[in-house]
Amino acid sequence: MFDTMTMTKVVGAVCGSLLVFMLGGWAASALYVTGGGHGGEVTQAYTIDTGSDDADEVAEEGPTFEELYASADVGSGERVFAKCKACHRLDGSDGTGPHLNGIVDRAKASSDGFAYSDVLLAMKGDTWTPENLDAFLLNPKKYAPGTKMSFAGLPKPTDRVNLIAWLATQE
User: Fold this and answer.
1) Which of 47, 68, 71, 82 has its Cβ near the most Cβ atoms within 10 Å?
2) DSSP secondary structure code for residue 89 in this structure
3) For the segment 93-104, what is each residue's pLDDT rounded down to a tens digit?
């Protein structure tokens, strides 16, 4: 069963497979160089202007917060609130987050019994004006660094103003 010819074929097949594997690795490394590989200093031949420097100027050309808030859609705000329901309630009881009924123009960190983060406790003398809520809902971590709120924020200004307008109706 295992004669000399069979063993020779097995050893030849293993050596041939290793040779193909090594040649494949060599060919791949010749085609795909990682780590900069051309040996010299490489300079950019041209740059593509993406307009990222002008992004702030373009953002300011849109409607102001007051204009958006004046034309807010309360019905759409209720739909946006679906993103908040997991943590916030409107029945006066706190969940993972504090209750939000009456939040517009209410003092910050004013829900009794809720364990606010230190940064929001430091803002206790301020109120949740529509403008403050807009800034907070845009990026909670930037507005209040160290906040316990893990929500990333609402990037669309219309979503924010619609939500704030709807929350203003929830007493």
Assistant:
1) 68
2) -
3) 888 899 998 999
Instruction: Please tell me the distance from the alpha carbon of residue 37 to that of residue 96, in angstroms, as a whole number.
Output: 52
Cα 136 to Cα 119: distance, rounded to the nearest angstrom: 13
Q: What is the pLDDT of residues 108-131, one digit of tens each?
A: 999 888 899 999 999 999 999 999
Distance, CA of 131 to CA of 35 (rounded, Å): 48
Two structure tokens written together for 87: 């943590």
* Contacts of residue 155, Cβ cutoff 8 Å, sequence gap at least 6: 138
What's the Cα-to-Cα distance from 67 to each of 64, 129, 135, 161, 165, rounded to whole Å?
5, 16, 16, 10, 13
Q: What is the DSSP string of 14-71?
A: HHHHHHHHHHHHHHHHHHS--S--SSS----S------GGGHHHHHHTS--HHHHHHT
Does the pTM exceed 0.90?
no
Encoded tokens for 88? 């916030």
- The answer to whether 120 touches 144, Cβ cutoff 8 Å, is yes
What are the chain's domains?
52-168 (1.10.760.10)
With a CB cutoff of 8 Å and minimum separation 6, the contacts of 62 are: 157
